[in-house]
Amino acid sequence: MRENITSGDVSFRKAYLRSFIDAVEVADSVIRINGSKSTLEQAVIACSQPGKNGGRGFVPKWRT
Fold this sequence. Notes:
Number of helices: 4
Order of helices and strands: HHEEHH
Helix content: 40-55%
Radius of gyration: 13 Å
């Protein structure tokens, strides 16, 4: 499943995102993603832990 999400077929990845995102609103300076807050939160947390899911994350790699 993780491999399909990170590098699988585009149609699979779109279907996965549609399963928890209701709508995406794009304005000049803001992008809003609408859906269940708890479901979106779980998805963001899963993506922000790159060591656990092997995919891209939101946590920067800090350098000394």
